[in-house]
Automatic annotation (TrEMBL):
Name by which UniProt lists this protein: 4-hydroxy-3-methylbut-2-en-1-yl diphosphate synthase (flavodoxin)
UniProt feature coiled coil, ranges: none
Natural source organism: Neisseria leonii
GO MF entries: 4 iron, 4 sulfur cluster binding; 4-hydroxy-3-methylbut-2-en-1-yl diphosphate synthase activity (ferredoxin); 4-hydroxy-3-methylbut-2-enyl-diphosphate synthase activity (flavodoxin); iron ion binding
Annotated ranges, domain IspG TIM-barrel: 10-280
Biological process annotations from GO: isopentenyl diphosphate biosynthetic process, methylerythritol 4-phosphate pathway; terpenoid biosynthetic process
Secretion signal, residue range per the UniProt entry: none
Domain (IspG C-terminal): residue spans on this chain: 296-397
Family to which this protein belongs: Belongs to the IspG family.
Length: 422
């Protein structure tokens, strides 16, 4: 049995049908980039993110126009058969919007509150208190999300002044990281004092540098029993954002830290918003923490594989499997654990294909133009000609239909993940 990291023990938070924390699966979250006042467009994007595998979706609630449409968005999603919980992202004026639009307060499943953006002094305390009491009244969960770029300046100044007066002052960047943690913990305690149960609170402390994020979450995780939301804020675009997020989150997840995740990618112009969901899923799945979609093993190619046939088939089968999952996950429980190999030559092709549930070993340069297909380790058929791709996809479809779901032989077994104390 492969090694599975033990998870940090936390309070468990119920958000509609989702359980967050301890031995519950790490939850994938995403966020819309539509104008929330556009109810149809926002509901459509939430549905797209949900179909891609996002288990919670955060929406911006920043204006009266946006708050007035939240209940309609929830209704539209319900009509589409989408029960994905909505998280309201509040900054600056959240207490006013919750007060003026009680339907918004009820329709959201969780509130995200940034203590650095609620307000200053006694007025800020009153705003924070109103939002927390509203969450408690409606039984909503709250993520207290502290961010490096919007840290409570009065707290930062207080801690900087205390550090300056110390006999052994720490570097300013260390004080700032400590201020992030203190802000989250003090805000959580205020919420509890105001009547919000501990099992309704999730914390996050987001920064944009990998090593800082790892240090902050290690310290935060050691000092509380709240579930933690992971994400490298402002991760960036393309490979930079993917690599940075993976580098940070993989370390923390390997140490059992993290209960919900979001990959904050800047989308390429015209690219789908769902890419951040795919990256989050692939991080969790390649680490063996969860399974979301069948995995494709494919070789990188070399001088033996000058043809692009195996590259095209690997691309096509990967797209095919992910597109099918919106239906398959309901019809064929366990199919997410399917492993498919698409190999490009005789060197590793037959061996990798035999190890997969289904594998094809395509001919390399100078090899006989045939492609043996292996099913559960046994050679089933040899394909040749121009129709190999379609024939192989048909074999995959047949395998799924006969091996998963009702009457199938490969129902997924629940994975028991050990829990370690905080």
């Amino acid at each position: 049995m492969s090694y599975v990291p033990s998870r940090r023990r936390t309070h468990q938070v119920q958000i509609d049908h989702l359980t967050v924390g301890s031995d519950a699966p790490v939850v994938v979250q995403s966020m819309t980039n539509t104008d929330t006042a556009d109810a149809a467009g926002t509901a459509r994007q939430v549905k797209e993110l949900s179909d891609a595998g996002s288990e919670m979706v955060r929406i911006t609630v920043n204006t009266p126009e946006a708050a007035a449409k939240v209940a309609e968005i929830r209704s539209r999603l319900d009509d589409m058969g989408c029960n994905t919980p909505l998280v309201g992202d509040f900054h600056f004026n959240g207490e006013r919007l919750l007060q003026e639009f009680p339907d918004c307060a009820r329709a959201l499943s969780k509130y995200r509150i940034n203590p650095g953006n609620v307000g200053k002094g006694a007025k800020g305390d009153e705003k924070f208190a109103y939002m927390i009491r509203t969450a408690a009244e409606y039984g909503k969960a709250v993520r207290i999300g502290v961010n490096w770029g919007s840290l409570d300046q009065s707290l930062a100044k207080r801690m900087m002044d205390a550090n300056q007066a110390s006999a052994t002052p720490k570097p300013p960047e260390e004080v700032m990281k400590e201020a992030l943690i203190v802000s989250a913990l003090e805000s959580a305690q205020k919420a509890v004092d105001l009547g919000l149960p501990e099992d309704k609170i999730i914390l996050s402390c987001k920064v944009s540098a990998v090593q800082d994020l790892i240090q902050v979450y290690r310290d935060l995780g050691a000092r509380c029993a709240y579930p933690l939301h992971l994400g490298l804020t402002e991760a960036g675009m393309g490979s930079k954002g993917i690599v940075a997020s993976t580098a940070a989150l993989a370390v923390l997840l390997q140490e059992g830290i993290g209960d919900t995740v979001r990959i904050s990618l800047t989308p390429e112009p015209g690219s789908p918003r769902t890419q951040e969901v795919v990256v989050a899923q692939e991080i969790l799945q390649t680490m063996g923490l969860r399974s979301f979609t069948p995995m494709v093993t494919a070789c990188p190619g070399c001088g033996r594989t000058t043809s692009t046939v195996f590259q095209e088939l690997a691309r096509d089968i990967q797209h095919y499997l992910r597109e099918k999952m919106s239906v398959w996950r309901h019809q064929y429980p366990g199919v997410e654990s399917l492993n498919v190999a698409v190999m490009g030559c005789v060197v590793n092709g037959p061996g990798e294909s035999k190890l997969a549930d289904i594998g094809i070993s395509l001919p390399g340069t100078g090899e006989t133009p045939v492609a043996p297909v292996y099913v559960d380790g046994e050679r089933k058929v040899t394909l040749k000609g121009d129709n190999m791709a379609a024939e192989f996809l048909a074999i995959v479809q047949e395998y799924v239909e006969t091996h998963y779901g009702e009457g199938g032989r490969k129902r997924a077994a629940p994975r028991l993940i050990p829990i370690r104390p905080v």
